[in-house]
């Protein structure tokens, strides 16, 4: 009997140990955290046949992608080795799906800041960036939230811009003149693409396998431009916008992305093995204006001779920067016709009132 009691106590203790171990493991998994280290510093880059220094995070343009899962706390350590104050803005999305110490925080030169960001639920694409308009041109990156562990063929696509001159000077010129901030090139993941000079070798490529499905995490990081995005001969199925799933996913030839907007787009590698252009721009038609179009390449794996040049998608011909002088001339023509019409109507009224009138004839009616 004594032996049985000791065995029962041992079994009970073992069960309790296993129970608490499971609870501890579940607790640590639910409260797991990942630490990301950001270093803000100037880095030299060569684009459009010339070299210049830009403000970057970890020497990358665009900056590093943050990957997280629902229920996870992300710890972000940021060190500023630059010359100016930098305020980082992170991860705003509709709804209460994440919690941060602050939506934005200031890092002074020579200082470090640590922030905690907790993701509650849902999957989607967010992004982080500098608050200052000229700093945000190069200090930005994707923030991707996965709903659960597993193999996901997701590819961050950051649509940005490049300036030959110092971005700060370009912004100051914009403020002084009141005009638009026009860059020298649009970029896909920091690369302008083949329509710009000295850009063939560095073009961004996505290597795909026939029959596989891929999730593109597309972010419009352009300073002030709405961009259209598409892939030659491939449809895009939009499943989320601005970090939140949409109730009715839709399939389209291209996606329109407003300023600071993100979209999750699924595409299937279901075409003949070849090279296909991925294109983004503001005014894209069959001519593909090199000053308004950036390109990347979808490259199928396999043995084949690719088309030269690769196939291009057809995107809408759209120009938000319309010719204001032409519109004013058009308005002047309309006003001229309106004034002429009013004068013509006035003349008709005058002529009608001055027409000769016949004398009225009076008649006497004699009652019967």
UniProtKB/TrEMBL annotation:
Catalytic activity reported: 4 hydroquinone + O2 = 4 benzosemiquinone + 2 H2O
Xref: InterPro entries: Cu-oxidase-like_N (IPR011707), Cu-oxidase_2nd (IPR001117), Cu-oxidase_fam (IPR045087), Cupredoxin (IPR008972), CuRO_2_LCC (IPR034285)
Location in or out of the cell: Secreted, Extracellular space, Apoplast
Signal peptide range in chain numbering: 1-27
Gene3D superfamilies listed in its UniProt record: Cupredoxins - blue copper proteins
Keyword Transmembrane helix: yes
Classification lineage: Eukaryota, Viridiplantae, Streptophyta, Embryophyta, Tracheophyta
GO molecular function, one term: copper ion binding
Protein name: laccase
Residue ranges of coiled coil: none
This protein's GO CC annotations: apoplast
Source organism per UniProt: Solanum verrucosum
């Amino acid at each position: 009997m004594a032996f049985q009691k000791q065995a029962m106590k041992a079994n009970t203790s073992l069960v309790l140990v296993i129970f608490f171990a499971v609870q501890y493991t579940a607790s640590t998994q639910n409260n797991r955290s990942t630490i990301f280290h950001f270093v803000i510093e100037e880095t030299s880059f060569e684009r459009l046949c010339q070299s210049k220094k830009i403000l970057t995070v970890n020497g990358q343009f665009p900056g590093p992608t943050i990957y997280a899962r629902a229920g996870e706390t992300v710890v972000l350590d940021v060190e500023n080795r630059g010359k100016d104050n930098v305020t980082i803005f992170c991860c705003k999305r509709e709804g209460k799906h994440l919690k941060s110490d602050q939506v934005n925080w200031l890092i002074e030169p020579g200082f470090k800041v640590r922030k905690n960001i907790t993701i509650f639920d849902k999957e989607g694409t967010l992004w982080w960036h500098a608050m200052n308009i000229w700093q945000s041109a190069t200090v930005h990156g994707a923030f991707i939230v996965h709903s659960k562990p597993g193999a996901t063929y997701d590819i961050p696509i950051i649509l940005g811009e490049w300036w030959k001159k110092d971005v700060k000077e370009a912004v100051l010129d914009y403020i002084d003149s009141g005009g638009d901030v026009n860059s020298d090139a649009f970029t896909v993941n920091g690369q302008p693409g083949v329509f710009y000079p000295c850009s063939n070798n560095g073009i961004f490529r996505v290597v795909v396998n026939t029959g596989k499905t891929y999730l593109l995490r597309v972010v419009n990081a352009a300073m002030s431009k709405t961009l259209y995005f598409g892939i030659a001969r491939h449809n895009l199925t939009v499943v989320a916008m601005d970090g939140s799933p949409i109730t009715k996913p839709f399939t389209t030839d291209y996606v329109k992305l407003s300023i600071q907007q993100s979209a999750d787009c699924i595409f299937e590698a279901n075409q003949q093995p070849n090279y296909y252009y991925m294109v983004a721009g503001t005014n894209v038609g069959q001519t593909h204006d090199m000053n308004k179009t950036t390109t990347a390449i979808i490259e199928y794996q396999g043995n084949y001779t690719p088309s030269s040049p690769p196939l291009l998608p057809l995107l809408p011909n759209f120009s938000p920067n319309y010719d204001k002088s032409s519109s004013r001339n058009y308005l002047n023509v309309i006003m001229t016709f309106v004034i002429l019409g009013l004068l013509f109507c006035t003349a008709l009224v005058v002529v009608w009132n001055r027409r000769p009138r016949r004398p009225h004839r009076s008649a006497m009616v004699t009652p019967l």
